[in-house]
Amino acid sequence: MPEAVIDNPELARQFEPYAEAHIPGAKNLRVVQMRRIHGGASRQTYSVDIAYEDATGLKTKGVILRRDPADSLIDTERRVEFAAIRTAHGKAGIPAPEALFLETDTGPLGAPFFVMGRIEGGMPLNPFQIDAVEPHRAEVGREFFRHLGAIASLEIDGTPIAEEIETPAPDQCWKRELDYWANEIRTNAREPQPVAEAAIRYLAANPPPPAQKLSLVHGDFRSGNFLHDGQGRINAVLDWEMAHIGDPYEDLAWATDLLWCGNDQERAAGFIPWPDAIAVWQEASGCSFEPAAFEWWSLFAHLKGLGIWITSARAFADGKNDDPILAWSGWFTHAAHELMLASRLAPKFGVKL
User: How much is the pLDDT for 75?
Assistant: First the structure.
């Protein structure tokens, strides 16, 4: 065995017998490398190399371990994330990882977790440095909207995620999401949130058209949550922890939110011109573009962002999670989304800024 490079030796020691028991025919399994991947705050994520023997000889495998922290940027259910990955993996060309095993008991690793296959050969993209994909910005953009549409195109009946969670009625998708995030904001806010409250009232009073179809919603599809090969190809769609069943416009609006595209209003998601992006998404998803639906969900995306940042700030302030990304989110990204909401809501309420 090569010399181990392990960030968390105790976790590696606990993981070895569990992985050996869950890989058919494996014996003498060892963790060769365990490296913490920082940047997200909803799961503790580790890239793990394992080596083991089976009937055919020595095998090596790279996996991703996602373990629940004490508290996170968003409170999510690992069963749903695992089911979403299983639903998308190998379907419609979506580069979702392979879901390997799920553990809801705290005994083996001290907290619930799941393990998925590691997709090799990709690099992340900082959503605040989209220029880094040049000269392949257009190719990445077309891949981005093609995969977004492909997720929306999946039939959900009988899929793993449909077995885990309730499927809403087409005309109730918006209300379920608005009610959820309004509750998150009101429960976790540490000071008054007048802009968020104005948005909640406006969105409730002006609902969008019913969903054209019910789809798998990734929930956090955006720059920063995929890997690319540096040559214009996206080879992994990551971070499915906010997945659910709903209106595909929710994903389209979140993916193109100004926060994730460097405030580039000419290019959708900061990648390609809006008409091109919408055309790719329509073809891949089978949906037709409705401006009224997009307008509602786009405003909602700002509010959803506020819900995430307010929740993260509360978790940090209460000492439940000391990851500094939560404090940063509660300050910088909160201010950005609050300003976006205020500037778009003001004309609707007859206010000049």
Answer: 47
Q: What is the DSSP letter of 212?
A: S
Q: What is the CA radius of gyration of the chain?
A: 21
Q: What pairing do the DSSP bridges indicate for beta strands 123-124 and 215-217? A: unpaired
- pLDDT averaged over the chain? 93
Q: How far apart, in whole angstroms, are the C-alpha atoms of residue 239 and residue 286?
A: 24
Q: Is 279 exposed, middle or buried (0-12, 13-18, 19+ CB in 10 A)?
A: middle
Q: What is the residue-wise DSSP string for 31-81?
A: EEEEEEE-S-SSSEEEEEEEEEEETTEEEEEEEEEEE--SS-SS---HHHH
Name the residue type at position 155.
E
Total count of residues recorded for the chain: 353
Q: How far apart are CA 188 and CA 305, in angstroms?
A: 13
Give the phi and the psi of residue 89 in degrees, each rounded to 5: -60, 125
> Does the model's pTM come out above 0.90?
yes
Are 195 and 345 within 8 A, CB to CB?
yes
Q: Which two tokens stand for residue 315?
A: 């978790």
> What is the distance of C-alpha 275 from the center of its chain?
25
Cβ partners under 8 Å of residue 275, min gap 6: none
DSSP state of 332: I
